Amino acid sequence: MANNDVAQLIEAIDRLATGSFVMGADWQAVHDICQRHEGEQPFDWGHALCHRIEGDDWNADYWYRRAGKTRGTGTMADEWAAMRAVLSQKP
Length: 91
What we know:
With 91 residues, this protein is mainly α. It has five helices and no strands.
């Protein structure tokens, strides 16, 4: 996994956050990035967030498990802030 791929994920989710985490083109862009990197922890985590935004808790929980994480209990913004802090530290 290249560091620039994680940077691309961060940028895409930042755009999604700016749009208040609503379904649309920014959501689809994040989902597409995550699907291209299926099986890589940061992207599986992003995939989980996508399905949480979508309201598909079963599917979100599947991706959280794949990423070794659990679904957040706060807002999407809270979860993204925590995710962003971790992803920004990836080498």
